Predict the structure.
Amino acid sequence: MTGGGPRRFARFDDLERMAALHHTRGGPGAFGGGPIFGHPFGGGRGRARRGEVRTALLLLLAEEPRNGYQLMQEIEQRSGGRWRPSPGSVYPTLAQLEDEGLIRTAEHEGAKRFEITDQGRERLEEHRKQSAPWEIDDDRGFSDLRGLIRGVVIAVTQVARAGDEHQVRRATELLDETRRALYRILAEDDRDA
């Protein structure tokens, strides 16, 4: 061994922190704008169309009054950590819903919370047949794929830390070919459809 002692193998929590830090610096450690380990191709703290944020907020407020932070936490929990709308999307949406008369602010146990109005409940009933926005469809194998991505990142990090120059070069070539092969899959004609 060279250097100042034995090389340390990567721990998974170290890798998550590294990936999140890398993402915040605009690096390539993200898919669709989010950290590798946070959301499968979903982006940042999770991205959704404006209507999905509105529906999610109304659904949660129909259950009980909540503040903005509680709403973001509840969406993240119900989506299994795959979607947590940012304050920049939640608070303007809450203000818009309040302007439209669908929700109102009220004091609950000494704190300001949002609650749904009768008009909000009526609007929600119009869309009740749709599934909740946080119920993300995993039929396309995102959960399995995310697990494989985690495993690959751990292996790559260990090769980078413990491998010699030849092993690192072989790993780099393999990853480059894998990246190109994945794009070829997307470019294929769907002839079996």
